[in-house]
């Protein structure tokens, strides 16, 4: 298997690649080292960095070996200098020369031997255009400069953050504008924006897509990552049959909510449809419209997944008391609404990474009157960056059943309609980046499609929305959906 991981300087491709290779039991090759080696030898030999012939000759003869953390070029130890900024610059300059690239690409192909994880700029486009899996990592310049600074500091250097930003921007420009094999995402690459994500999260996403979620989960557990300790144990448990007779409070509470709803709405008032569309295992983002106080208890109760967690407004959970106790045991976790709450986003990513279900309401608040209102970008961000399938859930009649301010629910028809799962793409087929808001709108469109026309609110114009959001999403036909026989 060949896994190509491309991306600009500081996008994390080598760190991610190394970990992915380790998890898959494959060798890892950092292709940048070869260009660095050519640059280093050229500087030593006093070769002009524009002298194509001399550099091409040099590249054809260079030998780079990596053993443990030691990098040897032509038999000599270069570990201490190979990552220094002046060699980054030299590497980027020699990498513009087609002859140098040809020589390096030949070497890289030979190193692969059909089984490798390789990081670089052109691995998915030029070196291994037929790679089994292709990823393209991105991140903002500021974030990448911060990572580079931390990396250099760990090697005992004292880098200047501002200078690093300038250097990275300059290198981005040169690497992406050169004529020979410019840095870019392959058309069939999965583009992952790693801003705000830690190494673990990115590695998890890559492995999930390569299809080793299970193996990965075992590894995380055995190392007992502190980040994962926040995820309740049920989220970490491998999906499957119930492990034993132990009664889970959450399971009991969900059962009671179902019972209550069925008794109260007896006589055919409660309808659940599309159950066959719910993936029974693996990560899933469940997104529902929100019009009534009964929605948050109802959605997880009827969802056939006990490994689910719901985002709840932090106000409900901060004050200790019976309410907060119930909510916590009902697997609610706090989100500070209308803000990019990093902690909540991290927790959401962890739940999904562990193969669990995240329940949220993209509108960000209970909508007391009228149809759907515009979604906040948060749900889009989560779906886009985790790549998890999204299950649209349309709630019909819950407001009429339990309008704000009323004491007792009314006996009216209530429906829970599951729509076909979708997946948010990182990029549209034409290469345009998918924005968080567009991703959130695509999710709302999928909900609106399941709602009666009068309840669609700002998402009523399905036709023009489908056109505007085409390419933002695709049907999720992952293994989980396929296992339930769902065709989308
Ligand atoms: O990944 P890195 O920062 O170590 O790479 C150093 C330079 O090498 C980079 O600025 C451009 C060049 N390079 C390339 O052109 N193609 C690759 N596949 C890898 C690196």
What would a concise description of this structure say?
With 488 residues, the protein is α/β, with parallel strands linked by helices.
Helix and strand topology:
Elements: E1 2-6, H1 13-24, E2 28-30, H2 32-45, H3 52-61, E3 64-67, E4 70-73, E5 76-77, H4 85-94, H5 98-112, E6 116-120, H6 123-127, E7 133-138, H7 141-154, H8 161-177, E8 190-193, H9 199-210, H10 213-223, H11 233-236, H12 249-264, E9 270-273, E10 284-288, H13 295-302, E11 308-313, H14 315-318, H15 322-329, E12 332-335, H16 342-353, E13 357-360, H17 378-386, E14 390-396, H18 398-401, E15 414-418, E16 422-424, H19 436-450, H20 462-468, E17 473-475, H21 479-483
Parallel strand pairs: 1-6, 1-7, 2-6, 7-8, 9-15, 10-13, 10-14, 11-12, 11-13
Antiparallel strand pairs: 3-4, 4-5, 14-15, 16-17
Helix pairs in contact: 1-9, 2-4, 3-5, 4-8, 7-8, 12-13, 17-19
Write up this protein:
The structure is a single chain. The protein is an alpha/beta fold and about 500 residues long. The chain has 2 domains: about 1-220, 3-Layer(aba) Sandwich (Rossmann fold), CATH 3.40.50.300; about 235-475, Glycerol-3-phosphate (1)-acyltransferase. Helices cover about 45% and strands about 15% of the residues. It contains 21 helices and 17 strands. It has a 7-stranded mixed beta sheet with strand order 9-15-14-10-13-11-12, with helices on both faces. It has a 5-stranded parallel beta sheet with strand order 2-6-1-7-8, with helices on both faces. A 3-stranded antiparallel beta sheet has the order 3-4-5, with helices on one face. It binds 2'-deoxycytidine-5'-monophosphate (DC). 2'-deoxycytidine-5'-monophosphate binds near residues 95 and 123.
């Amino acid at each position: 298997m060949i896994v190509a991981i491309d991306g600009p300087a500081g996008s994390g491709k080598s760190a991610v690649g190394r970990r992915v290779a380790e998890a898959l039991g494959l060798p890892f090759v950092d292709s940048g080292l070869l260009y660095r080696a050519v640059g280093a030898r050229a500087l030593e030999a006093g070769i002009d960095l524009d002298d194509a012939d001399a550099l091409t000759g040099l590249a054809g003869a260079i030998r780079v070996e990596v053993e443990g953390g030691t990098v040897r070029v032509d038999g000599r130890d270069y570990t201490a200098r190979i990552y220094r900024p002046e060699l980054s610059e030299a590497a980027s300059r020699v990498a513009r020369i087609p002859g140098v690239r040809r020589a390096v690409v030949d070497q890289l192909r030979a190193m692969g031997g059909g089984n490798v994880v390789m990081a670089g700029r052109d691995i998915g486009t030029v070196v291994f255009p037929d790679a089994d899996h292709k990823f393209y990592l991105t991140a903002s310049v500021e974030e990448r400069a911060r990572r580079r600074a931390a990396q250099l500091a760990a090697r005992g250097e004292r880098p200047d953050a501002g200078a690093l930003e300038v250097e990275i921007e300059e290198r981005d420009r040169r690497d992406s504008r050169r004529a020979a094999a410019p840095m870019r995402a392959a058309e069939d690459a999965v583009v992952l924006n790693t801003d705000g994500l830690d190494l673990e999260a990115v590695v998890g996403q890559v492995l999930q897509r390569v299809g080793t979620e299970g193996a990965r989960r075992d590894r995380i557990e055995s190392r007992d990552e502190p980040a994962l300790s926040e995820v309740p144990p049920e989220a970490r448990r491998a999906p499957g049959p119930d492990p034993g007779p132990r009664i889970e409070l959450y399971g009991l509470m969900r059962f009671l909510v179902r019972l209550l709803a069925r008794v109260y709405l007896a006589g055919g008032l409660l309808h659940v449809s599309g159950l066959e569309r719910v993936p029974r295992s693996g990560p899933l983002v469940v997104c529902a419209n929100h019009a009534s106080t009964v929605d948050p208890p109802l959605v997880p109760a009827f969802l056939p997944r006990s490994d689910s967690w719901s985002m709840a407004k932090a106000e409900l959970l901060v004050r200790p008391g019976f309410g907060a106790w119930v909510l916590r045991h009902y697997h609610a976790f706090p989100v500070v609404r209308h803000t990019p709450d990093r902690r909540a986003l991290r927790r959401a990513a962890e739940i999904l990474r562990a193969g669990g279900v995240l329940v949220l309401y993209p509108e960000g608040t209970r909508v007391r009157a009228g149809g759907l209102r515009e979604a906040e970008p948060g749900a889009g961000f989560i779906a886009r960056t985790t790549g998890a399938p999204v299950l649209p859930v349309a709630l019909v009649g819950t407001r009429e059943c339990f309008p704000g301010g009323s004491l007792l629910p009314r006996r009216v028809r209530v429906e829970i309609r599951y729509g076909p799962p979708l997946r948010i793409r990182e990029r549209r087929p034409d290469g345009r980046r998918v924005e968080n808001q567009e991703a959130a709108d695509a999710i709302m469109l999928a909900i609106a499609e399941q709602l009666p026309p009068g309840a669609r609110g700002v998402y009523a114009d399905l036709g023009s929305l489908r056109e505007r959001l085409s390419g933002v999403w695709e049907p999720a036909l992952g293994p989980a959906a396929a296992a339930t026989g769902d065709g989308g």
